[in-house]
């Protein structure tokens, strides 16, 4: 059961990190906030994104033998990136929930 | 010929991708299905829908089953052509070696062996002096599975992805190997011609025109799963490199190889030849218990994955027991060899060297013996991303050229589009059609497996004819209605397969998910339903009328599109 919990944590961390890394691009930020005149706080978004990306790797290592964990992590990144890309193209507003004021820079 | 590296790479990417993309599509799609080959087997052979079990007792269960094993008639005929005189009656041939193989996903067990023959080979260099026998047994009852029951997952979809089931001169293996090599070149050239790998990492704009949105999807599915694409093409080549693609040990270096084999046997204490002195067989179960004890001692407690015996009934006979690699990225390994007549340990394989461990990881990550359901599904997803990448590649090829071809009266785009329909929707139709046939044909039909294969190829052939017949609009820069029609048919057939499974076996989803949970069958049914939903969604999207205005837009845009940009 603990393994499953770690894997769920890895999935969540991977999706969040990909979300933030995407929002660090101004084009994607504007897809999520089309009306707003705000800009992304790029540095913070990228830093948090990379931290969570590393965290998801740690969670994968907690769940499995390292040889297996590395495969799970690499594949998870592909799925997370694809999911974020699909959210951006179909339901961009949904990504607002991962954007606290901390990540907003004033235009 | 080209002014820049990007242009020359673009040429390689486009034309090699087009020619071998059709093959790669087969590798990716059937490769994705192979992740769940055993589960598809359960769906296709309802008699085997019970829980997987570890290797059963050899002494009590397997030993009597081997006595029923018969030489394979096809291999008998093939061997007869290679030897002097006629082969003896198959009933009289003596089993000289045997094996049993199982995984954590197998309720049934694969067994086989080699039968000795007295005939001399026509070619003195031919050392293949035996006939093979193979069977699938139900270890619970000790019964052999009907030979006519084709294991659609592991004996059809799985070999499809690495051999195209074209076994003449191993042609399929060579075509797939070439495709894997070209795919590696395609990945490198793709990276070179893609200008905005990071900036467009998350970019998919379905609201843009078909060319642009397909290019987005092509780039995105190629880039996000790049490690997967690279490692699967590369490890595919690694897996077959030594015995098929570069078989130097069986060609140029054959004498050296044979000498090494003998020396190695001597060094390991495993007799290369029989002694000619009859000897009994000690308890194999005791040997298995000893092997498990030794694995546990090395902190690698596990189950038996592979068991083999050589020189059966001879003083030099030995039993080899290998551990199943379910808990790591590995194949069967940690072999321990026993003297068959006494049960004493002859040799315990030492831990792998660094090179051998790397090889095991590379082949293991592709062959997936591991017990990790999430990683299995992630692999399916990776395979489907690869399929999307190739399919959008075909669309790009056609969209970029069809307006020009329409003006010139060329049929190029039309042909490529028809082939794309055949390898995208047509291929899935063939696979689902085979499942439908599997449920419609009676279980006791003679040659049922052959019929299923014939239906598979026929559905695929008909899908091609349909795509070609409906393709004329492409020559006028319009869309081929076959895309939509085949999507609709696919949706209907997928639902049909789920319904037929219910009607013919009584295993409906409420039962297989809730009341009498059996995920192998439930998973196939649910995947078929998802396939149907996606197919109907695609058909609905493709119904959107393409107005003359849109076509004119496409024509004028195509004049402007000169490069992948």
Describe it for me?
The complex is a heterodimer of chains A (107) and B (565). Chain A is mainly alpha-helical and 107 residues long. Helices cover 71% and strands 4% of the residues of chain A. Chain A has four helices and two strands, in the order ααβααβ. Chain A has a two-stranded antiparallel sheet. In chain A, helix 1 packs antiparallel against helix 3 (42-63). With 565 residues, chain B is α+β, with helices and mostly antiparallel strands. Helix content of chain B is 58%, strand content 9%. In chain B, strand 7 (333-339) and strand 8 (345-348) form a beta hairpin. In chain B, helix 1 runs antiparallel to helix 5 (152-163), helix 6 (171-193) runs antiparallel to helix 8 and helix 8 crosses helix 11. The longest helix of chain B is centred in the last third of the chain and has 36 residues, at 373-408. Residues 558-565 of chain B have low confidence and may be disordered.
Give a short overview.
Helix content of chain A is 71%, strand content 4%.
Oligomer: heterodimer
Average pLDDT of chain A, rounded to a whole number, is: 93
Global shape of chain B: globular
Measured between the Cα atoms of the first and last residue of chain A, the distance is 47 Å
Would you identify the regions of chain A where 5 or more consecutive residues have pLDDT less than 50?
none
Low-confidence stretches of chain B: 558-565
Q: What is the strand tally of chain B?
A: 8
Main sheet specs of chain B: 8 strands, antiparallel
| Termini Cα gap of chain B | 21 Å
